[in-house]
């Protein structure tokens, strides 16, 4: 009997020890789990992390025509095109004219019939990859001179804002005052101009810097103003252009561009260039806007058509698109902040891209104005005496105010 009691006590003691050891192990593991979880939360990256760098699911498109419209943010887009082309060592279509002359940043101007002489020639068996200069869209010619698999893009801006920006950038005030000193109110110039814009416009023309300029850049001509041809030409643009971006949705436009061209996030990072830092704010009224719509109706029709098309495409985007958009804007802020100090900024890998650096050289290229960038493209052509090596074209195009 006594022996049985001793055995039971011995077994109980052993069980008690095992229970104590087990409890201690659980506590230690719990502490470790708590510490590990806290560490993970503390070190959780600011941006969504992926298990491995994003793997491209398509090949980047390298043949692109960007029709550069006036005062629509197009210089910033052109800068993006330049940087992509330089990064991939692509061939740029450059105007065949002397560097830093009046027309060297134009491929074509209104009234000119484009030929291959407008393009600086490439070595034999090479083709142009990117065109991002000011030019009047000429679908027949561009489809001949550019590769068949070229993607065509452009950008539009709300017409009244585009007109005001044009007025400010080109400083038309002095000319308008001289044309009608007794009527032109320099303290409220936009309203003065729109009270009778035909007074300051060459008779018989519907396309000037201040009138239907975006439509002119996209190839609208007098012949398209017949009712039957007007809609027909908009339908042609609809078919020809893979994307018409909208300035008022600039970041959204770039993200759609990224997806459409299968480019990397780094390719679409930007710093606004060619902005008018001297821009003044002028008062405007509903009457001003109504007068401008009457004066420049083609731009309004064009803009509203492609704005509707763009917002429709935006409305069907999934949540993933808007998450990436938010992330894109966060990276933009970081890049611009670091570029202010000339610092390289490392962007860690996410589900949208692999790790990459945005270097001081990237910053310098992103800040490069259009005319500077064109000079850089000429200099990298490696063609001796590129200013005079080929027969230069005689420019005859005219832009009317």
UniProtKB/TrEMBL annotation:
One of its GO terms (cellular component) is Golgi membrane. The keyword Lipoprotein does not apply. One of its GO terms (biological process) is glycolipid biosynthetic process. It is found in: Golgi apparatus membrane. This is Galactosylceramide sulfotransferase-like isoform X3. Pfam families: Gal-3-0_sulfotr. Its main location: Golgi. Belongs to the galactose-3-O-sulfotransferase family. Signal peptide: none annotated. SUPFAM superfamilies: P-loop containing nucleoside triphosphate hydrolases. One of its GO terms (molecular function) is galactosylceramide sulfotransferase activity. Keywords: Glycoprotein, Golgi apparatus, Membrane, Signal-anchor, Transferase, Transmembrane, Transmembrane helix. The gene is LOC106079189. The keyword Transmembrane helix applies. InterPro entries: Gal-3-0_sulfotransfrase (IPR009729), P-loop_NTPase (IPR027417). It is a single-pass type II membrane protein. Gene3D superfamilies: P-loop containing nucleotide triphosphate hydrolases.
């Amino acid at each position: 009997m006594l022996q049985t009691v001793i055995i039971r006590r011995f077994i109980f003691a052993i069980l008690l020890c095992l229970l104590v050891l087990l409890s201690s192990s659980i506590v230690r593991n719990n502490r470790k789990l708590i510490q590990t979880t806290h560490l993970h939360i503390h070190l959780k990256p600011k941006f969504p992390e992926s298990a491995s760098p994003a793997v491209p699911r398509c090949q980047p498109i390298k043949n692109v025509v960007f029709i550069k419209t006036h005062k629509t943010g197009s210089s910033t887009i052109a800068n993006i095109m330049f940087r992509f082309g330089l990064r991939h060592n692509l061939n740029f279509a450059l105007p065949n004219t002397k560097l830093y002359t009046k027309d060297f940043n134009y491929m074509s101007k209104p009234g000119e019939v484009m030929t291959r002489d407008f393009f600086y020639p490439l070595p034999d068996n090479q083709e142009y990859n990117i065109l991002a200069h000011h030019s009047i869209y000429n679908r027949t010619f561009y489809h001949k001179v550019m590769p068949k698999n070229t993607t065509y893009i452009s950008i539009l801006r709300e017409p009244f804002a585009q007109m005001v920006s044009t007025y400010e950038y080109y400083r038309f005030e002095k000319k308008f005052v001289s044309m009608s000193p007794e009527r032109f109110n320099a303290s409220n110039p936009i309203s003065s101009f729109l009270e009778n814009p035909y007074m300051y416009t060459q008779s018989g023309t519907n396309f000037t810097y201040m009138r239907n300029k975006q439509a002119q850049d996209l190839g609208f001509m007098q012949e398209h103003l017949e009712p039957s041809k007007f809609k027909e030409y908009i339908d042609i643009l609809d078919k020809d252009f893979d994307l018409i971006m909208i300035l008022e949705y600039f970041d959204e436009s770039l993200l759609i561009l990224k997806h459409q061209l299968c480019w990397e996030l780094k390719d679409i990072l930007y710093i606004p260039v060619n902005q008018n830092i001297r821009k003044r704010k002028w008062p405007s009224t509903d009457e001003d806007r109504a007068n401008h719509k009457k004066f420049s109706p083609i731009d309004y029709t064009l803009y509203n058509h492609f704005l509707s098309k763009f917002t429709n495409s935006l409305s069907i985007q999934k949540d993933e698109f808007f998450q990436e958009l938010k992330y894109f804007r966060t990276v933009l802020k970081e890049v611009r902040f670091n570029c202010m100090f000339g610092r390289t900024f490392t962007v860690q890998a996410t589900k949208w891209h692999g790790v990459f650096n945005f270097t001081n050289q990237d910053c310098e290229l992103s800040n490069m104005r259009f005319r500077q960038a064109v000079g850089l493209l000429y200099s990298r052509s490696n063609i001796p005496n590129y200013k005079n090596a080929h027969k230069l074209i005689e420019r005859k195009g005219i832009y009317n105010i």
